Amino acid sequence: MGWREDLRSEGFLDLGEFIIELIYVNCPCEPIPPVLAIYDKREDEWYRVDETPTVNNYSEACDWAIEVIERMREGEGVKVVGLDGPAPLKMVMRLRKSLQRLTD
Questions:
Q1: Is 18 within 8 Å of 92 (Cβ atoms)?
Q2: Angstrom distances, CA of residue 22 to CA of 30, 68, 70, 89
Q3: Are 21 and 39 in contact (CB under 8 A)?
Q4: Region label for 33, one of left (φ > 0), alpha (ψ between -120 and 50) or beta (otherwise)
Q5: What burial class does residue 54 get, using C-beta atoms within 10 Å of its C-beta: 0-12 exposed, 13-18 middle, 19+ buried?
Q6: pLDDT tens-digit series, residues 24-36
Q7: Is the pTM of this model over 0.85?
């Protein structure tokens, strides 16, 4: 099974140095956009992708998360933020290297 299927079935990817988790809450009363959270195990810090997609269900949220991860793997400047603002460039570069090691 490839990483895309892992993300769809488990809701997260463990990259060794990082954990990427798709947070999707199916709330019938008020739409809550999904979040792609990133935990940096080395630095013990949480980050998130700074995008707010419009999706209607878990499948669409997974499609969005996969698209974001693929853009990050290709080196596109996906905005990642922490509690104190933009993620450090060193962290983003380490994350990109970890993502490039994913197998299809």
A1: no
A2: 19, 11, 14, 22
A3: yes
A4: beta
A5: exposed
A6: 988 777 778 899 9
A7: yes
